[in-house]
Amino acid sequence: MANQFLANVIIKGKMKALTGIHVGGSKEKLQIGGVDSPVIRDPNTNHPYIPGSSLKGKMRMLLEFALGKVSNSGKPYESKDKDEEITRIFGTSEKDLKTGPTRLVVRDAFPDKATTEMWSQLESELFYTELKPENTIDRLTSEANPRFLERVVKDSVFDVEFVYSIYDLGDEGKIDKENIGRIFEALRLLEHSGIGGNISRGYGQIEFKFADPIVVKKEDYQNGTGNFILSSQKINEQNLKSLTEIKIPSLD
Q1: How crowded is residue 37: how many other Cβ atoms within 10 Å of its Cβ?
Q2: H/E stretch holding 180
Q3: Which residues pair with 168 in a beta bridge?
């Protein structure tokens, strides 16, 4: 039986920076004087953003540790089991493993309008960000080694979107339906960890707020109606819910 697409679950919301965030970019391209480690920026607007790869990679890592998948070797986790949850959700490099497409898509997170307006009013040496001095002290000589990191400022808000796909691989989508709970588990872990660098020193703390997830079935895509239209609309920010309030939708 061929792999058959059944539905997408669209999860949209906001990600708020509770502390400064540093997701590194290229110093050579940015050419910002005095910054040892700049943040990544959209070349069209010069606004900082959070790459989907950074979010997805951190979600996967945290979930692998939580599920006891990480070995003492330190090598990236791989499984040869086509039904293994990490493999199905996040993808695998095993070419012969018939798992179907990677289930989770994580979009790049760009700042919302209120945030870009807030950034434009910042009193800072940099464009839309803050300069955070760090100082390393040599324990033997007491010599200081100062450096300067660029950070996205506290209270910045980014639009986030996750798309989780459900496929029938001969089980009517049963395993994919069960695995969607792992997405929200990873997001909860991410809130209590962080995104970007220097998390253990206070950087990168975030908070999510989501609209109710929308299940867009194969028929909605075929007809261009129903939940496909609903999923294309902007979210109502007044109705966003925390991860303690959000409910996993019925996928039957």
Answers
A1: 17
A2: helix 174-191
A3: 4
